[in-house]
Amino acid sequence: MRPSIRQKKGERVFFQPLPSTHRSSFFSSLSPQEFVDLSNQMYIGILKTSFQYVNRAAPATRLVFYEDLVVVLGATFALLTIIITSLTSFAALDGVVTILIGLLMFVVAFRVGFDSMVGLIGVAAPHEVEEKVAKLILSDKHVTDINEIRIIQEGRYYHVESLIELRPGFSLTDADDIKFRVQDKLIADPDITDVMLGIIEDNGVKDWTPEKLNQVK
User: Fold this and answer.
1) How far apart are the first and last CA of the chain?
2) Residue 82: what are its φ and ψ, rounded to 5°?
3) Where in this chain does the record put each Cation efflux protein cytoplasmic domain (predicted)?
4) Residues 6+ apart with CB under 8 A from 22
5) Structural domains in the chain?
């Protein structure tokens, strides 16, 4: 705020403008062509990421994604068909595109039904999810190895079953405390809804490695 200035009668007072606080953004420093190239890269990246991780979304989200995809493709095909048939005599294109849009709708209906069936039965979790769970288990200082691990994905949630190895010498009570501590750590993850853990003493053999996991799957 500017300090108040007392002005005598008949005296002129000149105010010096404050320096501008406006800062130019990153996009304003780009040329039009650079802005277009960057926008295209962003759109392509969003599309690739969407298709890459669509299987991890909730069933309702996947349904909306596939439906909107068919709507956009169908509208695009219909618009191109109208333009082409109005400029050429290729009238059969109208029927071909209609059949194509119908096939797209059939594929989406089949995909949604298949995803719903898989959600009820369950599928194996992705590698990165299994590695994340394994790191949480091995982060406990008393856990030496993972003898077995099985993670089932149902919808967007995961069920974890694992047999973990502990350092030798623990009593049954202490081993149970360690198991419950690891179980609480896993169940704290919002994507994990159920955890079943078994415990054994370390057998001296390294059973779990990321390389072995990738070979199995």
Assistant:
1) 66
2) -60, -45
3) 126-196
4) none
5) 29-121 (no CATH), 124-216 (3.30.70.1350)
